[in-house]
Amino acid sequence: MTTAYFDELAGRLRDSGVPEDEVTETVDDLAAYVAESGADPGDEFGTPEEFAARLVTFVDDRVVFMRPEAASPDADAALGKSPRAPATRLLASRRFYLFISCYFGFWIAVCVAWVAFAPAESRSRFLVGSLVGLVTAAVVAGVTIWRGARRGG
């Protein structure tokens, strides 16, 4: 019955104007699903006439169909609950905060060591350079966050 079902379905899709390559692809996908699930195509999809009528929905000249369990009233239960949307766009894990803490700790240690052990004439240049870098990074981060917030992200 399976072969007869898909032969009739293919004929009805062709009669409805579906291009041959899409008929073949659709029927092959459905046959693979039935073979994998062990379901009867008549029980799973209904009669070939009814199912062909449901399948023939053209969107950009392509056939669109949905597996029956995804279209059922219990689709949420069958597919599982969707995860909650994040409260913010910027997501940071504990590892990220640990990395940032270690990174700034390292730079503070470098600055303290430089000031303590470097020749006197290079201390001020080092501190000015570090400050300029810090301010530049803060401005870039601030502008990036501000632009993201304005986009609604």
In short:
With 153 residues, the chain is mostly helical. Helix content is 69%, strand content 3%.
List the helices and strands and how they pair.
Elements: H1 2-15, H2 20-37, H3 41-45, H4 48-55, E1 58-59, E2 62-63, H5 75-79, H6 94-117, H7 120-150
Antiparallel strand pairs: 1-2
Helix pairs in contact: 1-2, 1-4
Task: Detail the poorly predicted runs.
Answer: none
- Amino-to-carboxy terminus distance: 53 Å
Order of helices and strands: HHHHEEHHH
- Spatial strand order of the main sheet: 1-2
The count of DSSP E runs of length 2 or more, i.e. the number of strands, is 2
Overall geometry comes to rod-shaped
The proportion of strand residues reads: under 5%
Main features:
rod-shaped; 7 helices; two-stranded antiparallel ribbon; 153 residues; mainly alpha; 3% strand; single chain
